[in-house]
Amino acid sequence: xxxxxTKMATASVSSTxxxxxxxxxxxxxxxxxTVNQALIIPHEDAVVTAGExxxxxxxxxxxxxxxxxxxxxxxxxxxxxLAYSGETRRLFIGFSSGAITEFSLTEDFNRMxxxxxxxxxVSRVNQIIFSLEHEWVLSVGRDKCLQWxxxxxxxxLGGHQAKAWCLSLQFDAESKHIFVGDFxxxxxxxxxxxxxxxxxxxxKGHSGSIRSLAWDPEKRLLFSxxxxxxxxxxxxxxxxxxxxxxxxxxxxxxxVCYIPSSRRLLSSGDDRKLVVxxxxxxxxxxxxxxxSDICEKCGAAFFWNIKEMWSRKKIQLNRQHHCxxxxxxxxxxxxxxxxxxxxxxxxxxxxxxxxxxxxLTEEDRKTTTRFFDMKHEVLYMYYDPTKGHLxxxxxxxxxxxWDVKSIL
Length: 408
Hints:
Elements: E1 2-5, H1 15-19, E2 23-29, E3 35-40, E4 46-51, E5 55-61, E6 67-74, E7 79-85, E8 90-95, E9 100-105, E10 112-118, E11 125-131, E12 136-141, E13 145-150, E14 156-161, E15 166-172, E16 177-182, E17 186-193, E18 196-204, E19 210-216, E20 221-226, E21 231-235, E22 242-246, E23 253-259, E24 264-269, E25 273-278, H2 306-312, E26 321-322, E27 329-330, E28 337-341, E29 346-352, H3 354-359, E30 370-373, E31 378-384, E32 389-394, E33 398-403
Parallel strand pairs: 1-22
Antiparallel strand pairs: 2-33, 3-4, 4-5, 5-6, 7-8, 8-9, 9-10, 11-12, 12-13, 13-14, 15-16, 16-17, 17-18, 19-20, 20-21, 21-22, 23-24, 24-25, 25-30, 26-27, 28-29, 31-32, 32-33
């Protein structure tokens, strides 16, 4: 797979977006217990949380303006993942034990009744996706497995074994492609054909575990957020192996959400920042790094090139660096400059050769990417398109609800 970095070049931004900031609407505090995942019930002022304290809570907005639980369901083990179908009010809960349980919520969200148990995994369930169109329940877990169950019968239809913990999951209902991100940094691309799951390819580009995936069904783009502090945009639709890297975080990326209506990607993680990436702006390809035994600018030998240094009768301890703009190998003397390169995906200063640095203009340094302080380390995010609300689950054991319409 050929990878190149991208970011947002200069583009006009509406005055509303330029001034807008996320508005904190509410906080949900779960009595000091860790929340693993949470979701917003579409079209409702209701939130569901899955807790490490062996509980699942449904929170409703009260007249006081606060959210209070209408349901507190005790579970046999820690609730680790959630999926919800708004059309059918079916709630799927994954547990640290590996089991998945399906419940039905009443219309007033004051009661939940058991529908079915799925014997899915033998270890923690990390993510669940329910496809109403196909009546399929897809799940991944720490047992290194993807499992595929029928939502009608509860029977297992198939699965796939990986070599590392399976941490994140996405599904394209139209093409029946499944994307599984694992602990080793690989993404497994699978396809459901008739009654089996077949592996199509493996995407390799991250050096850290992949904690979150998002999918654009129209453009057929896959977004992966990783502990290597980067996001990669994989152009699945072009079938050319093209990928764009986005570098704007200073710590682990744990969550990505894609907003199709505005072509914005939201990302967050351990650096407490919400980054809003504008995917409408032009993109530039960054060149592949060249490999050379000498500096491609001044000709100085790098420290391992003993033969060249011997012929010149001159000992040099030059390290090899690469210019992020032209990709050429350069010594330290020839790559003294640094700058952010938004059009190539670099929001923070990166090394440049002196020639490329001298050519940079202020226009080249402009960006349409925006950064916001979320005031807590974000472990998980959920976006509700019906209201333009974003939910963040923090390491501080607090769930925050934001209005993000003005930044999209």
